[in-house]
Amino acid sequence: MKPYALQVLAVLVLVFLGVSADLYLPTLMSDIINSGVMKGDTAYILQVGLRMLLVTLGSLCAAVLSSFFSSRAATWFTRDLRRAIFERVEGFSLHEFDKLGTATLITRSTNDVTQIQMVTVMILRMLVMAPIMAVGGIIQAYQQDKALTLVLAVAVPVLAISISVLASIAMPWFKKIQAKVDQLNLILREGLTGIRVIRAFNRWPHEEARFDRANQDITKTYVTVNRMMAFMMPIVMMIMNLTSLSILWFGVRRIDSGGMQLGSLMAFIQYAMQIMFSFMMMAMMFIMVPRAQAAAERIEEVLAVEPTILDPKEPQKPSGAHADLEFKDVTFCYHGAEKPALSQVSFHAKAGEVTAVIGSTGSGKSTLIKLIPRFYEVSSGAILVDGVDLRALRQEDLRAMIGYVPQKALLFSGTVAENLRFGAEEAPEAELRQAADTAQALEFIEGFSGGFEHRIAQGGTDVSGGQKQRLSIARALARKPEIYLLDDTFSALDFKTDAKLRAALKERLKGATVILVAQRVGTVMDADRIIVLDEGRVVGMGKHRELLSTCPVYREIAQSQLSEEEIA
Ligand code: ADP
Ligand code: MG
To answer: Ligand nearest 99 Cα, by number?
Structure first.
């Protein structure tokens, strides 16, 4: 049983006790007036008065405790919900991220969860309280005076109908708000992440107007909704007051004719108020629940997504020392894409060899790299590591073998050393230096005021693109993996650093499997194998010399970059 199930039970019991006490009080009061005050029996008044005091105290305690437990149960529940969402999202492959979108994942695990938390607290208390109070109140009122109950038979339906009419008008607006919050978040996010571009192109006024529109839009919706809600209160109050008035009107007549006692009339009015109040609570729930329902549906959507990439039940262990990598007829299609990003790609990258991938932008180079750590699942075909299908390995074991340097270098806030230790927490200082040295990063790291302890700002905004690339190469090197995936990591480097880095890497990467994506022919020239990609297809494979004579696409790329003498 979940830990909060017990608390929910406690809330239900407490609410029940509290409502019973509240329903008992008017009867006691009626007794005091009818049998005490009217007959001048002070002892009786004191005795029943004391009972009233105790019952009130009991009701108070029940209210405080039920508030406490319901708040706690709701917060615990939403904590677990957030955890569930986070764990689910963690298991997502990039495919699922593409499908849902990051912005909405954030709103769903913060905003929507809070909505649910608020409503859970309310429901826990009101869902039990309202019906008990309504039914109990009606029974008690009926016992006080049967004839007057007829007034309630008119007043309660009138109240119920007016509230539901108002609520049904307001409801669609509540649903609209959710979508508008999403829209506002999206614009805000774009404005913040794209701030440089927006400034450079002088688009602030445009962005401001766009934000303003969304902001105004959401404000208007809120105002409309609140206006409708504001209507509700006076209408309800009017109905309640009219009801009291009618009860008094008819009640006084009944007292005159001797059919009713004063105490019963006063108790009756109180019961009438309790009954109407409980109907109001029910109406509130009808308003709140659909809002929470919208939030719950959005969360459910996230939780219902089954990650496409799962660990096998009986995983095989990777052999360890080296890693041959083989693509067998691999085809891959992105979510929603019309044609595959990779078609029937086959090659064999042996341990100790450098396999270079070259091709124009959008030819599928990064896609090919991303399939190896299983960020995405191949649509058909297979990728083998040492003859074992990737899908037979645990993702953790697979990724432990890989040093991945993404095309867009990403650093985390923290020191240089912390960033380099990202995939190798235990790496000693000397190894960090070595990795940095190979990545041609040592020089500028030592130029920082704190050296390896220099703090990198959030998102690595204080280092240049080329420095970021070299730090992210060093991060991969520090891990000492069997497979290196370098996705266009030399693009921001000058030719001299590029050459020095490649020479140093050659030494360092001996024995490892290297897949290297590059734009420059100069970078791939001395690879053991060059794969030429064009629109997701392999249009050439071999060494530089062979490709120059056999592969027109490669020759074209070479001709655009190298001089005639270099090619010849
Ligand atoms: P390259 O790295 O060679 O420049 P990519 O592998 O990044 O090319 O992209 C290959 C193709 O796949 C491109 O047409 C690109 O538009 C498409 N693509 C890349 N990433 C995604 C994605 N997340 N969702 C849909 N299509 C994508
Ligand atoms: Mg790319």
So the answer is: 1
